[in-house]
Amino acid sequence: xxxQDNSRYQQQSQPLxxxxxxxSSSDDDLYGNNSQQxxxxxxxxxxxxxxxxxxxxxxxxxxxxxxxxxDSQYNRNQQHVYNDDGYGSGSASDLLHPNNANQxxxxxxxxxxxxxxxxxxxxxDLYSGAVSSPMGMSTAAAVAGSAAAVAGxxxxxxxxxxxxxSSTSLNVMSEFDRYPNRISSxxxxxSTPGANGSDNYHNGMRNSTFSNESGASSLSDSxxxxxxxxxxxxxxxxxxxxxxxxxxxxxxxxxxxxxNPDPILDAKNDRMCVKPDRRGMATIAALLFLVLGAIVLFIxxxxxxxxxxxxxxxxxxxxxxxxTKYEYGILSGIRTSLVDPDTPDDALEHTALDGSKxxxxxxxxxxxxxxTFYDGDDQYWTAPDIxxxxxxxxxxxxxxxxxxxxxxxxFTLDAFKNHNLYYRSGMVQSWNKLCFTNGYIxxxxxxxxxxxxxxxxxGIWTLGNLGRPGYLGTTEGVWPYCYNQxxxxxxxxQSSSDGISYLKGQKLNACTCPGSDHPNPGTGRGAPEIDVxxxxxxxxxxxxxxxxxLQLAPYDxxxxxxxxxxxxxxxxxxVTNTWFGGPLQQAIxxxxxxxxxxxxxxxxxxxxxxxxxxxxxxxxxYIRWFIGDTATHTLYAPALGPNGNIGQRDIAKEPLxxxxxxxxxxxxxxxDWPSLVWPSHLxxxxxxxYQPSDAISITCDPKDYPTYDYIQNHLDVYTNPNxxxxxxxxxxxxxxxxxxxx
Length: 742
Description:
The chain has 2 domains: about 1-245, no CATH class; about 345-695 and about 710-730, Jelly Rolls (Sandwich), CATH 2.60.120. The chain contains 9 helices and 31 strands.
């Protein structure tokens, strides 16, 4: 540089006053141009916030706002001082002024000094980047030697007050620092007017660069020769000198090794086997634990759950001391005698109507705990799993509801939804397992519920073995016939158009055509019904009542038997039932009142025995019903004599099976829903059968009235409760000689 250029950057002792103008005519210009450049700032423009300034620089912004309110402030003489904005040193400080007051006219101008070794700086030249003033405009720093700039800065710093700590020392930057140190000052540290009068600053640079005044030139003007001195608003480097940034691919930076691939070093590292430390081993163990846990949770556990291996299974023991005093292994509980060993000695005989003694031929005391009655569970009883649709019952008969407990057979009727019905109860029947012909049957029971509340329907009854209770396909044309004639009584509706009968006719009549499907042709067969009891409650007396009856067909005119052959022993407790039957059955029934203590919820509840005794001889046959040891009434065979166009009906000659059940149905009695108690239980202490010693028949397949072969030949009907009519089967309705065999 020439002397004029050097003198231009010397630190002056006098303050900077008046207009300053910088004219560059140096032959050491960056581009070798000798052209004169004139920079003038003639307007005030608010600066954008510098992203590299700390939040403490807001004090300087406030000073800038004060300047906007009094533009004349910039026409005063200004003391040349440094203002450290805290960026380079990491702290914020006020303007350095002898009286510690902000009195300079350029409160927040920044000067950026690149390193001398920067490739873009030539020799001792120093390029000052665009400086952001408080008004948002850029001023061009003079091109000067780095030595002169440093000397000037040192002189100016020395003029600062001694009591104030210096924070304006220039930090030494590392090579290729992306964020160079800055010096904030009212004007450039090297902006002292030089000896060459053409090189100076003037206050006109504070005027808007966008004013229409002649001679004003914006720093963004295309006439600017130096590409690194540009307006901060348009600088790609945010107002920083371009020399502070590496612009060439060959330039080296301290962090190049982090992102520049090195094939040689990478290959060397690939061959190295690094042993994992404790942290690495712990990480691997944790990952393995998570993987194994996921496998167990989402694969192993679902498989175990699906196969049932996770369910708890109780140990199977050979005895249950808490349930029974008996100890037996598998199959050792099978009875080998029809008479239960637990039957007391005083119950081994029954005194018949004629005074003869009938021995006990069958008994079940139900003393063994936990007996169940699913199909095949018991020797004598089966609990069906059906809906009893014949009487439109509201309950479903479920084997779960029938069990022996505390020495009794117990049925539980509960409001329990089952098979789309809202009640569940129990029934057991001895169909095709245990039947009897002639004799005395007794069942000792405690009836369910209260003796004064209507709604429940307990039953103890018998039915001919050719009809299975609840299987309507088996009872059609069979129930409740007890007829051995060949006349109008075997025809549909009894050949009467007055609606006395809706029955389809006797299917297995005495005059079926040869080759017809019949158990023993020539004998009228059926399934008569004799009820030990059907329980209800009298709405007038508010006490329990039982109906003891015979159900039969064909019917008497007006369903009225010959009442001269029916005997009632105590008319104060037993009366003729006012209901004698309907189009589906004739009922010869007597109603007897009961003691309310014979019910489950009665005062001092107890058990009572109920039964009937019958003989089926043609002329001397009879049926006698009992409550306790007292006979209530007797029906003699002549009561079923010929009537109208029908002949003599028989007292049941069919082998009778036994049915015990607890039901509920609106077809039986009015139901007092609010007063019923749930659950209700029907309990049986025992069932016993006595027969004359010379006429013991405890089989379901007697010689004169066989049933076994016929049932086996139609087993699908007898085992499917969904077959409700004979027309649903593949079997023909037998033809008879009365209506023609052709």
